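User: Just a sanity check before I run the rest of the batch. Below are the structure tokens for the first item. I only need the designed sequence back.
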């Protein structure tokens, strides 16, 4: 696990976008795993800017998103489908048929989850997975206690996750209780992973992640067993870690 410290959100987004763009150039038919939320929005903005300025082509790129809320309509402006369209997909030349998110709109959700796992396998696996991290250490929506062997499935959101994501909803009770999420074993099969973190709210979990042994209590800790993970985090997110451990650039 490689740790990279950057000054701020802008630099984090810049570096993450550079990793994606390099892959797109090196492997124009790559499969890229994507996250939603506040963290990667700046990365997507830079991908869009780069597409406009440099015409980096996504014509043969395939994407698979980590997760989608259960029971929301795809065109609901809180769905991750909507988020991805707004932030990225509507602005680059990615083909619609190459964009994948878990269905999750109507039952049968369990079957949709199984199909999604199969789809990722059929695509040949994920070349680069972009991850955020929950304040409780979740990756995707795999909450603390999720077995590391988990595959894509229907998951229940932790009350703290619903609380953290309530900012995107009019009413906090509107936050869905469940999602379909790539499993931890699914994420671990990605060839390369970048985990992004920004802001003071992520400081405690990054410190805990740095210090902990691999444990299902902190889902992201499994990434220590992956051969190619880079954490790109800004100074605020690394403040506690640096205060207690010194520099993280290594
Ligand atoms: C989103 C996802 C989540 C988020 C995490 C951090 O697709 O899978 O794991 O990455 O909850 O969210 P933000 O970036 O909003 O702090």
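Assistant: Here's the designed sequence for the first item:
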């Amino acid at each position: 696990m490689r740790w990279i410290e950057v000054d701020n959100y802008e630099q984090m987004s810049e570096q993450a976008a550079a990793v994606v763009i390099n892959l797109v150039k090196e492997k124009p038919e790559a499969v890229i795993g994507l996250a939603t939320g506040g963290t990667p929005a700046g990365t997507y903005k830079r991908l869009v800017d780069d597409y406009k300025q440099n015409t980096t082509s996504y014509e043969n790129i395939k994407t698979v998103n980590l997760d989608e809320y259960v029971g929301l309509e795809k065109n609901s402006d809180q769905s991750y489908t909507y988020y991805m369209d707004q932030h990225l997909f509507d602005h680059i030349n990615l083909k619609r048929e190459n964009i994948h998110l878990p269905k999750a709109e109507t039952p049968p959700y369990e079957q949709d989850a199984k199909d999604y796992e199969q789809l990722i396998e059929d695509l040949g696996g994920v070349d680069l997975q972009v991850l955020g991290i929950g304040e409780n250490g979740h990756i995707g929506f795999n909450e603390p206690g999720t077995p590391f062997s988990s595959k894509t499935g229907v998951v229940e959101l932790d009350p703290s996750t619903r609380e953290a994501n309530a900012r995107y909803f009019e009413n906090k009770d509107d936050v869905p209780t469940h999602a379909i999420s790539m499993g931890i074993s699914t994420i671990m099969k990605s060839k390369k992973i970048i985990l992004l973190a920004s802001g003071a709210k992520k400081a405690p979990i990054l410190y805990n992640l740095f210090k902990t042994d691999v444990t299902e209590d902190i889902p992201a800790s499994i990434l220590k067993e992956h051969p190619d993970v880079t954490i790109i985090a800004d100074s605020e997110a690394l403040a506690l870690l640096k205060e207690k451990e010194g520099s993280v650039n290594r």
